[in-house]
Amino acid sequence: MRILSRFGKFLFALTMFGVLPSVVLGQNAKAQIKAEIDACSSPCEKSGLNSSFPDINSMVTGSLHAATEALDAGKLYLTLEKLLQAETCSMALAWW
User: Residue 64: is it exposed, middle or buried by C-beta count within 10 angstroms (0-12/13-18/19+)?
Assistant: First the structure.
């Protein structure tokens, strides 16, 4: 009887460790972040404020480029930080 309960617990643990990682891995963070980088870069390219604020525009494009490089290197937290910098600068351009 005791062996059966241990075996049951073992099977339960295998099931949980087998199922949960597949659920967690179902979220494709890289694709979502890449889509956000693309969405942030397209208004920057279409913006007519390039001549008015060249420094801010170069900061946005630099941050987006750094975010793309960090994403390619697999550094997700650095990617999100650079993406936030680019979005903050973009909001500053939109504000003016």
Answer: buried
